[in-house]
Amino acid sequence: MTSTSANRHDAPTQTAPPLLWGRNSLPVPYAAAWSGEVPAVGAALTIREDGSGLAYRDERALDRDRHGVLWARLTEAPGVGRPVFRSLHSHRQRRAMLGMLCQVCGAPAGRTARGWLFLLQQPGPGEQPAHWPEGALSAKPPVCAPCARLALRYCPHLTVPLALRVRKPRVWGVFGGLVTPGVGGALVSSPNDECLPYGHPAARWFLASQLVLELRHCRAA
Prior knowledge:
Order of helices and strands: EEEEEEEHEEEHEEEE
Radius of gyration: 18 Å
Number of helices: 2
Helix content: under 10%
Largest sheet: 8 strands, mixed
Strand content: 25-35%
């Protein structure tokens, strides 16, 4: 499944500059989380009445995606507190992935006939799968060309970056954690987060926090 956005060029598309933070006026990506944005999960989670999976006690339609996977609740307050550069806000990340929006400015991401623009961190020695980056899984939304330059300048996590053109980014699954029944019916969260493909049997006990794309038809930008 690919995005249906109509943006087909790499001209500057920013509608507003990224939020700036700190004495050095660092640009804060649109998809980044802020310390003032509070998880609202906790005691709200329960087991479905028929025992078939995870649910919210006061579940709303928007709590699940179209594949039926439950999503972590997180308040939305960009600019409040400090930016948490290592974390992505679940709703803004998902919005950017589905709409092919730039993860930095929130405007349409860069696209040419060669594909959408993505920035990836290259795997370390011995960690690169065969045929990488073809078929790579990514929880990082695409970027526009001006913001790609910003990211390459400021992002400390892009130590060995690779700019890619991706013609067929496909919705693959979700990133998050399993929450399963324990002793006495209490819910137990997995200590480690992981990626899970849509359609997996464990999806009914999964709490998603990010959407994952599979990158197909890739070439270096």
